């Protein structure tokens, strides 16, 4: 598996640098740099994550019970994912890895509401302009406003799908963004019968619209298979958690990894021991780390996570309509794993349908209105929480001292897992669409389309510490550089 697109014979002095800064319609800030020779041949392509979020460090020293609320500030798009992963990790600290039935079902409802709203946001608001208008269409209409003008019903349903998911979050977490519903050992609120009935009144329409969204994504593939099957396509391993009996499960399960041919590499791995399965590598040109399977090493061990991995890694989806769509998706691959980045959109809509079906089932369960909401037991000093966030596998790991203060925090978020796959996708796209051609905005947008397929959350993902390169410039009032200090990837400082 190639790690970088580079031509060693190119003279660095003749190369021209082109930057996409910043990548649009993603959460967070990143840029892509391309090095071109005098013939416009692509010599190097890299995705750089240029913002730094130091949550792993400043969480240290805080009381553990503050953490599920604090870590949500990583992101305004997927705060529920961090809220729940942190709570799951700290369930171990308070001696409650097994929650009460009411607490677990309320957390699941919160999480599936998050999956629904996030998938709707990404597909309809962020990606549909490219998919409906074309990758090199007029930039002025290639946005959600343009979609609303040309496809008003598509935009309306996308907005209402997300609104419903946010309402589920509001009722279970207390707020649509940065709620407080989950706590170590359980939850602090339940749903009344009236609240459940209010959501049930709309859920069938949500299921119907989700089915339409699957058909829309599927139709894009079947109408143009040459583009959708080949755009940025590369082969890699896949990773996700898998629930009981091999079911797709966003909230809980064991780790499973497959190779590029679909053969299982690891199965039933305890998430509390994730660090024995996964290692992380740091590169000098990005604040985002590069995870890999320890048994395979950094060159062969990187993998994809998220919807495309999950729907192919599980054995079945435990809701009938989504499972039927999953089987059709697998048939499209003709017995082989589907690796095309644009297939993420199809898989994502299948998951959105599953979330809607699961929400309906949960809302009919009287445990959601129960009063036994918190469990406890002998306290421990360490805990790991793993869930499947909308973008993929999310890992939170904490150590807590005798004073209940956090002494260590390690976060491996979905986009971090997908770091190498995103880099590989943009290199394949650059090689196919940009090589030897005069660059236009539309051609450069092809790079962004490849990145957006992974639905990256870049602000969540940048937590590398210790080996990050850093440059600080001091400028006078006229903007002239007075001094500069740099730190290399090896940690050595240089002033000049």
Q: Top keywords for this entry?
A:
Cytochrome-c3 Hydrogenase, chain B, alpha+beta, disordered N terminus, 4-stranded mixed beta sheet, about 20% strand, about 40% helix, 3-stranded antiparallel beta sheet, about 500 residues, globular
Can you describe this structure in just a few lines?
This protein is α+β, with helices and mostly antiparallel strands and 496 residues long. The chain is built from 17 helices and 17 strands. Helix 12 (320-332) packs antiparallel against helix 13 and helix 15 runs antiparallel to helix 16.
Layout of helices and strands, plus pairs?
Blueprint: E1 16-21, E2 30-36, E3 42-49, H1 55-58, H2 67-70, H3 79-93, H4 101-133, H5 144-150, H6 152-173, E4 182-183, E5 186-187, H7 193-223, H8 225-230, E6 237-242, E7 254-258, E8 264-269, H9 274-277, E9 278-281, E10 290-293, H10 297-300, E11 303-304, H11 307-313, H12 320-332, H13 343-363, E12 382-389, E13 392-400, E14 406-412, H14 414-417, H15 419-434, H16 441-452, H17 458-461, E15 470-475, E16 481-487, E17 493-495
Parallel strand pairs: 6-11
Antiparallel strand pairs: 1-2, 2-3, 4-5, 6-7, 7-8, 9-10, 12-13, 13-14, 15-16, 16-17
Helix pairs in contact: 4-6, 4-13, 5-6, 6-7, 7-13, 11-13, 12-13, 15-16
